[in-house]
Amino acid sequence: MKSNRITRLMQMLTTFQAGKRYAVTDLAKLFGTSRRTIFRDLKELEAVGVPYHYDAQEGGYVIEPEFFLPPVDFTLQEALSLLLLVHKSGGHIQVPFKRSALLAALKIENNLPAAIRQYCSKAMQNITTRGSAQAPAEMLDRTFARLQTAIIKKSKVTMLYDSFFEGKNIEVELCPYHLFYNNRAWYVAGRSNVHNSIRTFKLNRIKELQLTDECFTGPERFDLDEYLGRAWSMIPEGRLYDVKLRFLPKVAGNVAEVRWHSTQQVTHNSDGSATMEFRVDGLGEITWWILGYGDQVEVLAPKQLRDRIIQIAENMVRLNDQPQGA
User: Fold this and answer.
1) Tens digits of per-residue pLDDT, 42-88?
2) Helices (H), the chain
């Protein structure tokens, strides 16, 4: 939703809260917009679960009184940060139960003091967030909720999983330990009967999921950081490497200002370049990160990583140096 629509929805809720019934034509005049827009706004409210209905006797729309919250005592900064999280940042990450979050935000907004509500409404119109691409998550709410229940109850689950590595759907019995979000998608970590070890599974690749009546014994608190260890992102390979990279001046500043890994060390060189060193578990994930910087990074160590980058670069040249479609 655009900020002006959010503002109008809030005004509509405030109008309904006053207790007077308004027909669509009345609302269109009140907010200076068309009947079609009002109907679209009403559908937006319905989509997030606002319990309104048309009162034929009174000739207008009304919201169930229990929907509204009592006054909320938020500071301006608290209110603005919450609304930014829901209306702005929430659009760029896969937030489970997103409609519920939006509904909660609408309730809170509607009960803010008028001065704070007006300030936040104006501020939101001048703030935009842009995020990275996200994995599709059509069944995120249902899958997340079932796994969350299974983790709390320590219940095993069975799932049909579209495995990227096996290249087919596999049946897995899983003891789920922990849900986590990494980069573009949600994952569950747990012990898999197929792999006889703790593995991670991407939620959007789970095709079917069922809770079982069988319980499991597992850690009271699963330590995700301990499990991932020094993996570059989330796939430890069981061998540590000392990686040393030199980024050329064009990108050195932007790369060095970000904390990419817990072991990161940066040396700024006199020529404007930056040398970055890491101690990582496995070379697979960091390889693709390095390739993203193209000809602006030199692999100094280890030799295995340098050879791997050279081989991939040669393959890229060979692939793109032939006629299109060949």
Assistant:
1) 888 887 777 888 888 878 888 776 676 566 677 888 888 888 877 77
2) 3-17, 24-31, 35-47, 76-83, 98-110, 114-124, 140-153, 224-228, 249-256, 284-291, 303-320
